[in-house]
Amino acid sequence: MTDQRSNGLKPLRVAIVGLGTVGGGVIRLLETNGALIARRSGRPIQIVAISARDRTKDRGIDLSAYEWVDDMTSLVQRADVDAVVELIGGADGPALTLARQCLAAGKPFVTANKAMIAHHGLALAGAAETAGVALKYEAAVAGGIPVIKGLREGAAANEIGRVYGILNGTCNYILTTMEKAQEAGNPRDFTEVLKDAQALGYAEADPSFDIDGVDAAHKLSILASLAFGTRLDFGGVDITGIRHVIAADIAEAAALGFRIRLVGMAQNGAEGLFQRVHPMLVPLNHPLAHVDGSLNAVVAEGNFVGRLFFQGAGAGDGPTASAVVADLIDVARDEYGDAFAMPVASLADQTKADAGARIGRSYLRFQVADRPGVLAEIAAATRDAGVSIESMIQRGTAAANDGGVLVAIVTHAGQERCIADTLARLAGSDSLLDQPMVMHILD
Ligand code: NAP
Ligand code: HSE
Fold first, then answer.
1. Number of structural domains found in the chain
2. Which residues are catalytic?
3. Residue to substitute in 86, 88, 218, 327 for testing ligand 1 pocket (most ligand atoms within 8 angstroms of CB)
4. pLDDT in tens, 79-129
5. Are residues 129 and 153 both part of a single domain?
6. What residue numbers bound the domain in which 93 lies?
7. Which of 115, 137, 243, 262 stands the most exposed, by the fewest C-beta atoms within 10 Å?
8. Residue 383: inside a domain, yes or no?
9. Residues 305 and 379 in one domain
10. Strand arrangement, sheet containing 67-68
């Protein structure tokens, strides 16, 4: 087919900085789908320069067609570079320096860096507004899922009250791999499954960002700002990761009719802005219970559109490259708007909501000494804190990994502050062999 739109038009000339999992994926994608992309963009997207830390590294792709540049910041001043793609990572350091210099030079900037956007997104968006250029970050949230576009454009007419989902592919891969291995009667160790996720290119350079929930919190804060039109508030996210989820939790959750997922949830209303990332028990009849492996999913509830459900690959080279190049196509078409869907000055300040006032069911797991009176002690603490128990499972030493007894409780719906009160009442008890685990239930 004749390429009528892109024929003879000036290409968008890009520099790619960072040639790891995502950078390599972007190069492969542009090489594979270049002709189709040119038709869709109205002009070709051409890589003119590349940069990373180590020029000699074997990256498994032929980079000989591209000019290697050691000093990445020189790229922003070059007349033959129209846009810069940053795929290094890190909230600060070289990525942030590059972003600031690029936008100050009046060049469009595309990034997959959620840490940088969560911490500096408003300042960078302000710089992009001042310069009148694009700041694009589709790949920063939920990998290949076009959720930034979905909220910024598709759902822009709605007031969104709640946005939540599975935002970290590494954690979802670990939880669901352990879950399936357990179901198959061949339990696998957390550390070993994390290594698989790293080998598959899902994890951050420092995987504690994944397993401690920080990466999901970066993404959640970005989604919340876009969904609610509020100022980015990463510091306002309450974060708990999956480090303390043990195999017995996965088994008990299954026995109770749930699956465990690391869920990021943000809600906005008269009570303030609530933002939390933590492992939750998801009932089997909820779509999030069926999001497996490195998949991510985002639910957004709008006042006219109703419930939107986005699902797709949340990590890895191909899906993430797909999102990065989608941003480049917008830049090539000269179709971009405000980075946070409105001018930074129009974003609202919002106070942090009191999580203790939230109502819901919870799962509590205790590892306790196997002696008379321990269950009565827990029951007394729940009674005195005003927590009503819906169901309880006690397992003998085989289920607990430290020789004690494992007690798993599901509560009736109640205020979260009562759960905190229960734990405070049990604090310091010599019946407890380990820190109790609390996971709220997604109802
Ligand atoms: P990666 O595989 O670790 O690659 C990072 C690249 O950045 C490497 O090529 C590295 O150079 C380069 N780099 C690091 N420090 C540098 C420095 N000081 N100066 C110049 N280059 C430097 O990381 P990645 O997984 O591709 O992730 C890149 C970005 O995408 C991050 O912001 C990440 O959060 C985000 N992201 C990743 C995924 C995913 O699934 N992996 C998904 C969505 C978003 P060398 O190769 O020479 O060492
Ligand atoms: N480390 C991230 C994850 C990459 O596992 O979800 C995608 O943002």
1. 3
2. 219
3. 88
4. 999 999 999 999 999 999 999 999 999 999 999 999 999 999 999 999 999
5. no
6. 12-140
7. 243
8. yes
9. no
10. 67-68, 45-51, 12-17, 83-86, 109-111, 135-136
